[in-house]
């Protein structure tokens, strides 16, 4: 009887462990998170109006173009003083998709044709492919609003965490 | 142990001091705007919470064709959190609901210089800014 129980415990234990190992391997295969980056000005200036988009989500040329047109930033005036603008631009460029050195950034960078300079992350071929199953009416749900609102479904988006396992799409 | 507690307390005090390095009271901010308003208009007497309230709620049609107002993003009640067009929460505007509000002159100017052109398609006068702040301060 004791032996049966012991066998059972070993079996349950090994199945669970295998599951963990597989899940872990899968996560690494997906490049589960973008690297942790931080810059106080980036956080306060960019993060006060929208999701704190990780620099690794767009190539260098996109960030440079974006930061040189802040007075007309998606229809809003997001001007910064020259020093702040320079600091944030350098931070974005240093950690941009073509410099970040992680798998997700590499995919974004490779998926974007060299002649295009997307300003919206949602226009990169990588984003479009990753979200092709999301119907138009889902984007319009009150708790989501638009593809700009990453944190609505990816609660860790501000920290560069887009892991599939942690996606919760609000009703 | 005591020494450690002391140094910990010192670190805490320094951290708090650092946080408030640029913090001023909203009343101080108003004094600067009053001086600027007198410069703009020698007949200026004082700020008015009522005028500020009207400005906060006034809705106009932007040249892009959309209806815009301060309350459009900040909600009708400045004690409530608002929401940006990109769906990010905005902390309440009224200092009675958000003590951090109106304590950093550079931040106040930054947002007036962005949002006045955004909503009114022109800069705000010093009087408008002072009226607006006076209204926010009048909310208990």
Q: Determine and state the CATH class of chain B.
A: Mainly Alpha
CA distance, first residue to last residue of chain B: 45 Å
Question: What do we call the CATH homologous superfamily of chain B?
Answer: Cytochrome c-like domain
Number of helices of chain A: 7
User: What pattern of helices and strands is seen along the backbone of chain B?
Assistant: HHHEEHEEHH
The CATH topology of chain B comes to Cytochrome Bc1 Complex, Chain D, domain 2
Based on CA atoms alone, the radius of gyration of chain A comes out at 20 Å
Kindly state the number of beta strands of chain A. Answer: 0
Based on helices, strands and strand pairing, what is the structural class of chain B?
Answer: mainly alpha
**Oligomeric grouping of the chains:** heterodimer
User: How helix-rich are the residues of chain B, as a percent range?
Assistant: 40-55%
Instruction: Provide mean pLDDT of chain B, rounded.
Output: 89
Q: Tell me the major beta sheet of chain B.
A: 2 strands, antiparallel
- Estimated share of beta-strand residues of chain A: under 5%
Order of helices and strands of chain A: HHHHHHH
How many strands in all of chain B?
A: 4
